[in-house]
């Protein structure tokens, strides 16, 4: 079960303003490949812009403090943002969290088609996502 940094998610009330800032001020590019397909009917219907430094994506997501309630999940990844890692074995990673006594919310594919996502808190309350892309 290997983890690699995949993206950082920042939440905002104004996605176009954040998108312009990260592209114009920081010089990031609009991400064009490997974009997730958002499942807007399953729990999170917010606007999202995707920018990149060429290696790691930054997802600029419309803040939704009710997304956790909408999906029946305790951890809400779009209230304050999160950092995300990609794994090659989500089942093994969930078993690892269970063995460490770390509770998590299993969003499955409620937010992104083809991604199995789980979310949990670090000791300071920061949200962490780990996801696996479904095999083709």
From TrEMBL:
It comes from Sedimentitalea xiamensis. SUPFAM superfamilies: Glyoxalase/Bleomycin resistance protein/Dihydroxybiphenyl dioxygenase. This is VOC family protein. Residues 4-133 form the VOC domain. Pfam families: Glyoxalase.
């Amino acid at each position: 079960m290997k983890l690699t940094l995949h993206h950082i998610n920042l939440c905002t009330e104004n996605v176009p303003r954040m998108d312009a800032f990260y592209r114009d001020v920081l010089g990031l590019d609009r991400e064009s490949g490997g974009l997730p397909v958002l499942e807007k009917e399953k729990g999170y219907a917010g606007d999202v812009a995707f920018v990149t430094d060429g290696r790691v994506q930054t997802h600029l997501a419309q803040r939704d403090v009710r997304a956790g309630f909408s999906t029946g999940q305790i951890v809400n990844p779009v209230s304050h943002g999160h950092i995300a890692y990609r794994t090659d074995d989500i089942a093994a990673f969930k078993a690892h969290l269970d063995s460490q006594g770390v509770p998590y919310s299993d969003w499955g594919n409620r937010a992104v088609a083809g991604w199995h996502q789980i979310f949990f808190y670090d000791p300071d309350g920061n949200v962490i996502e780990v996801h696996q892309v479904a095999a083709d």
